[in-house]
Amino acid sequence: MLLYVAGPLFSTAERSFNQQLTDKIEALRYRVFLPQRDGVESNEPPYDIMPPDDRRRARFTLDKDNVLACDVFLFILDGRIPDEGACVELGIAYWGSKPKPPIFLTRSLRTVQVTEGQG
């Protein structure tokens, strides 16, 4: 079973939380695609020699393919608003031929709460 972890990954704290969560999930013998670890990193081969537009295309394609291939889509909702990139990934997960209802995870009291029947 493949789990895709979507969420903020730009601060050290966010990346650390994502990695710790992934380690715990993988200890349960699930496969995890963690974009900050498994995705396109501009300083890693072969992406380090790609022109920026090619690197952006490669990043989108790799992430999209893994979102569509995953069995579980985990959306980390920390902070005041959802991460924009994770929102795009959520749209892809829902758009695919095998739509996946997301699992939302939050540790923040600042996250907007929507319950069924509201909105």
Detailed description of the structure:
The protein has 119 residues and is an alpha/beta fold. It has a single domain (2-105), classed as Rossmann fold. The chain is built from four helices and four strands, in the order βαβααβαβ. The chain has helices spanning 12-27, 35-38, 52-69, 84-95, and strands at residues 2-6, 31-33, 72-76, 103-105. It has a four-stranded parallel sheet, sandwiched between helices. β1 (2-6), α1 (12-27) and β2 (31-33) form a beta-alpha-beta unit. α3 (52-69) crosses α4. The chain starts with a strand and ends in a 14-residue tail after the last strand. The mean pLDDT is 89.
Summarize the topology.
Elements: E1 2-6, H1 12-27, E2 31-33, H2 35-38, H3 52-69, E3 72-76, H4 84-95, E4 103-105
Parallel strand pairs: 1-2, 1-3, 3-4
Helix pairs in contact: 3-4
Features:
single chain; 119 residues; alpha/beta; Rossmann fold; four-stranded parallel sheet; globular
Question: How many structural domains in the coordinates?
Answer: 1
State the CATH topology.
Rossmann fold
Query: Largest sheet, described in full?
Result: 4 strands, parallel
Which CATH top level class fits? Alpha Beta
Unreliable stretches (pLDDT < 50, length at least 5) are none
Radius of gyration: 15 Å
Order of strands, main sheet, comes to 2-1-3-4
The mean pLDDT is 89
Q: Work out the strand percent.
A: 5-15%
The CATH architecture designation is 3-Layer(aba) Sandwich
- The total beta strand count reads 4
